[in-house]
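Hi, here's the filled form for the chain we discussed.

Project: internal
Contact: R.S.
Residues: 212
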Amino acid sequence: MNERFRKLPYGKGIGMACSGYMTGAQTPIYWNNMPHSGVQLKLDRGGGVSVFCGSAEIGQGSDSILAYIVAEVLGIDPFDIRVVTADTDLTPVDLGSYSSRVTLMTGNAAIQAAERAKDLLSQAVTEKLEVPGSRLCFADRRVFDTENPERGVTFIEAVWLAETKFGTLGPSARTSRQRRRENSKDPGSVLRRLSVSPRRSPKWRSIRRLAS
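And the returned structure, exactly as it came back:
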């Protein structure tokens, strides 16, 4: 640029940018009877767990949170988790990465799938240790008796026991589609979606004021 036309300091300039944000998408964009999201786990004999999910990572950590959730439930390290996402040949259905829904939907499905895996492992370890399942704790890559922590098995051994008892370990879970939302300005519909009774909710009056 010719110096005599320069108005701004050296190294400064004027640019233009734009962005888009989808709003009002509290429910699935695709109206069908498919679930919101699905998660399937695969436990292997080396103590690793694979998480299969159809959601797409868009830079907000939704892949990482799946590993953290499953690891927390099963008492293992996130580094023991392999996450496979957004591959339609391998993963369960997911209705898209939009409207801040991914962690909520896939995260809840991951919790349910991990709890089902934990239940299978608990049943097998209960028989081995001859203690009630309610006394078992999953932590530090072990499954042990809370009343006698020295008595337990490693997570790998728990997987061996469960696979011997049940066969291949691949529990899955999904979050279901919700009905169409009612009039968003109806404070009662807001509370119903929160599973709160309007008469008992301390926030009823404030929600009602916002809706009016």
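Let me know if anything looks off before we file it.
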